[in-house]
Design goal:
single chain, mainly alpha, 3 helices
Length: about 120
């Protein structure tokens, strides 16, 4: 098994943050920012763990097929590198979700003040 599966990495980068914001936004609208962040973070973390497990199964199948043939083969990049990519992307997406929630919270808080007093 050579190379990374860019389709799954691209889906995690493109689709997962949008889904997390769709889950978190109704909570944010009701001024429950913490619950929105928790819900969005849970979605991102569970998807990242699911993608790591999918990658584990795929790497394990290839390595087991090599062992059954009587030879040793190693995936390139290593399994740990593959797992780290999904984990780091998930962590980065959670950080972005929290930053967006701060922006939404600031805008909602500023709406309560007169225009002259807004920052």
């Amino acid at each position: 098994m050579q190379g990374l599966n860019w389709t799954w990495i691209g889906l995690e980068i493109a689709l997962l943050p949008l889904m997390a914001m769709l889950v978190a936004y109704p909570f944010w609208r009701n001024a429950s920012f913490i619950f929105g962040n928790i819900a969005g973070s849970m979605l991102i973390c569970s998807a990242a763990i699911g993608l790591i497990l999918r990658e584990y199964v795929e790497v394990d199948k290839v390595v087991q097929a090599c062992i059954d043939e009587g030879r040793v083969c190693w995936p390139h990049p290593s399994a740990e590198t593959r797992f780290a990519i999904y984990a780091c992307l998930g962590l980065f997406e959670v950080i972005v979700l929290f930053a967006i929630s701060l922006s939404v919270e600031r805008r909602m808080r500023n709406r309560e003040y007169a225009v002259e007093w807004r920052r």
